[in-house]
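1st attempt posting a full record on here, be nice pls
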Amino acid sequence: MKKKIHLIIMVLLASLSDLMTATPYRTSILRPNIKTLQIGVQDEKYSLPIIELNENKNIEIRFDEMSHETHNYNYTVLHCNYDWTLSDLTTNEYLSGYIDGYITEFNQSINTNYLYTNYRLTLPNDNMQFKISGNYVVIIYEDNIKDKPIAQACFSIVEPKVEIKPTIRYNTDIEINGRYQQLDFEVLLNSYSVRDPMTEIKTVVRQNNRLDNEVLNITSNYISNTKLTFVNNKSLIFEGGNEFHNFDISSVYAAGRGVDKIVFKGSGYNAYLFKDKIQIGNYLHDYDANGRFIINNQEAFEDVHTESDYVLVHFELKTPSPFFDGKLYLGGEFNYNLFDSNNLLQFNNFDETYSHTLLLKQGGYNYQYLFVPKGSTKATSTRVDGSYWQTQNEYTIYVYHRGWGERYDKLIGVIISD
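the predicted structure (as tokens):
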């Protein structure tokens, strides 16, 4: 009997381990006292977190802990497969130097109503370098307790071996010049050796860095010795959506773009955005940053990362009745394009509005309204902003290669098309 119980426990533990391994990593905040997690290329404001292997550039990660107390934050770096699940590599196969590290650079906020401490980490650094390309995730935790992470940040390292040529067109298999956009692309191998492209090559496509509608592992239509062609693939038809809404709270003394008024209440500033409304059938051309945000304070003297205050931002969407067949979320890079309770809008019958309030750091923000139907994990913009072929979207194409007998997915090409 004891042997049977022991066997059952072993099987359950193995199943749990497999489940954890198969869970894809996402950039996200895991503790309520952590705010404004940013990851990108150092000294590049609007970049995606992608650098070349052995390139003279660094990934920069910043976040705020909402106090002036001292915290000891550690980090570890994990290598991932093309789908952001944990790879089978050991640490010394993808890293040189130390396998873990301490975040030693931090500064307290100055002259802000909300106290916080800004932490900064760059990779690679003197203590840790990367040996191979692929996807990576930084797990940040406190007091060396690895099973209680506070945040995780994803980035990619590419070793360019192939050339990617994308085309965005509006004559799709669904309709012509309507709600959708069709992405086609070619992968030029440029003498790069691939024995069996059908099994060795993996692709990932993202629209505006969204996770819910990303497309993984598309099959190419045509294969030759020199290129792979992905054309007329229904999996690569995306809703055009509409241009992002935006607002500017880089000053608390004057209402910026998209802001109706700023008032000081209680312990801090409140920014009330102009009420949005349902605009189906009305494409509005505007210049946006495809969902990104930037920290900025017009009155800062030296460092916007420590002199920018936090502001309660009030979002409101006017609509006569709620959506009963799903939920409405705020989307954008400021919430890492995740659909959770932190970004869920609630309907107020008295005001006939969906509303939500977020504590955000001063700067400029893009956002959109995304509706997730019941039973689905994929969102649509059609319920609020409509969908139009004219919309300027950003498509990122990642190409990975795992050759025969190899144990990880090399990232051999990336292109950002808009």
